[in-house]
Design brief:
This protein is α+β, with helices and mostly antiparallel strands. The chain has nine helices and eleven strands. A hairpin with a 7-residue loop joins strand 9 and strand 10. It starts with a strand and ends in a 5-residue tail after the last strand. The relative contact order is 0.17. Bound molecules: (R)-mevalonate.
Amino acid sequence: MTGLKITSPAKTILFGEHAVVYGYPAIAIPVSQLKTTITIYPNPLGKSNDITIIAPDIGLHKNLTSLPKTHPFFTAFDVVCHHLGITSYPSCTLKITSTIPIASGLGSSASIAVSLIKAFSQFLGAVLPPQTITDLSYQVETIYHGTPSGIDNTVIGFEKGVIFQKEKKVQFLEVGKPVSILIANSGVHGKTKEAVSGVRKRWEQDKTKYETLFEKIGTITQQALDSLKTGHEIKLGLLMNENHACLQSIGVSHPKLDLLVNTARSNGAFGAKLCGGGLGGNMIALINPDHSEEIQQALKQAGATQTYLTKIESTSL
Ligand code: MEV
């Protein structure tokens, strides 16, 4: 039987993670090489609200209503029904798979949240605008991450490079020329929730130090926007290095991330930094694509478990 197929990409944050939680701007792009896929099949003979969820990656095969009300899958269903004013949902089976490594700073949870919102609404024939998908998936993200800024579900919901700032209308990224980004997985599980709450605790203890660092990250992000517009890779690389130093100072790096960042730099990358929540997960390096093979090789020798090559490009507005 053919089903309705929905996909959503992964994401990477180019500049500004963590400071974005405190109201500063950040830049993120979708990574379409990695994705969540949901296929939703109708069960014409099933009873209303009888929904089976199959997620082999996490060993889940259950009826949706048997999940705790606070489960992200249930919340996604609930927010869609609420938004559309639905009390009786047709019986169906959802199969969820993902090629996005979990706990890696690449937005696996936001990608699942966005895909679920799209799947549950489109199965009813409702094609929601990207802003609504983004808003509804934010409610799912709060279950995974506590108090997320909203950048992950926004970049994945719109599937465009974004300049994101809390409480402001999202802007889309425009670049002077495409630039290449190499992503490498440290193999250490990233812990976004723990990283965000750790930063908050330390911020509460020393607001002056942390506000200064967040402000610095905000300035770096603004400068990066200018460099992206002019396509100045050398400047952009230096800004990535500065951003990484700030992330080290707020305590969210990891020795393995630092090793990969240094390896990328010493093998010809213009610059490198951790990306996402940190404490593990992935790093990114700005590279000349002609050198991608050697840099990937060096990163793997230094312990990277996976590498992915992507591009920062202007998005059609
Ligand atoms: C996570 O991808 C990015 C953080 O800034 C958290 C957030 O913005 O919610 C670390």
